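Comment on both lines for my students:
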Amino acid sequence: MNKDLEKRLTQIEVHLEGISAHLEKSTTDTRLTLRNTDQIIVYLNKLRSYVETAMKTLHQSFKMLTTGILNLREETSELAGTCVYDVV
């Protein structure tokens, strides 16, 4: 009976060591995941500032382009008006 008890205790000890190793690996994996998540958040914040800058630049470019088109139309209209008056 004593040998049977020792055998079972040894099996339990082996299982507990396996569980302990598994928990240690899980803890390490969790730490790595948290670190990677933190790095992703930092990169997303940097990317957000780049996107905001790009959007502002696109907005300014669009504004300048539309202003230029309107000015060109006005100049073309004025030129057409003076050409008509010169011919008449």
Notes: The CA atoms of residues 39 and 47 lie 12 Å apart. The longest helix spans residues 2-87. The mean pLDDT is 86.
